[in-house]
Amino acid sequence: MTDQPHAEPTPGPWFVENHKIWHEGGLACIAEVFAGILGGSDSSDLSEAQEANARLIAAAPATAAERDRLVKALEDIVKGTHRCKSAGELFAWAQNIARAVLDEAQKS
């Protein structure tokens, strides 16, 4: 393997329209989701699956940002500088963040 420069992903936010994931402003298509072949599925099932998969992919920038925030919080907990002083508090805080990210992904 050769050492290749690490390419940065297109920054978010991204949104979904007609099975495609677009960069904010709609100037760059990030990806298009194809249905594939599912035994016994009709076209409406495939279309719904495409949209669900596209929403999941479009949530990647927000999910990555929240992952980074959680990692920082865990580092702060280890150092004793985070506002959550117990594992229970941290779990509740992280769970709220995760729910918010998933809710946002379902809207896009």
3D architecture notes:
By secondary structure, the protein is mostly helical. Helix content is 53%, strand content 11%. It contains 3 helices and 3 strands. It has a 3-stranded antiparallel beta sheet with strand order 1-2-3, covered by helices on one side. The chain is extended and about 50 Å long. It starts with 13 loop residues before the first strand and ends with a helix. Helix 2 (60-79) runs antiparallel to helix 3. The model has no long low-confidence stretch (mean pLDDT 79). The protein folds into 2 domains: 1-58, no CATH class; 59-108. The longest helix has 21 residues, at 87-107.
Query: Helical residue percent?
Result: 40-55%
Strand content: 5-15%
- Overall geometric form: extended
Mean pLDDT: 79
Distance between the termini: 38 Å
* Number of self-contained structural domains: 2
Low-confidence stretches: none
Number of helices: 3
Give the structural class.
Answer: mainly alpha
Chain oligomer state:
single chain
| Rg, Å, rounded | 18 Å
Biggest sheet character: 3 strands, antiparallel
Walk across the major sheet and give the strand order. Answer: 1-2-3
The count of DSSP E runs of length 2 or more, i.e. the number of strands, is: 3
Helix and strand string, N-terminal first?
EEEHHH
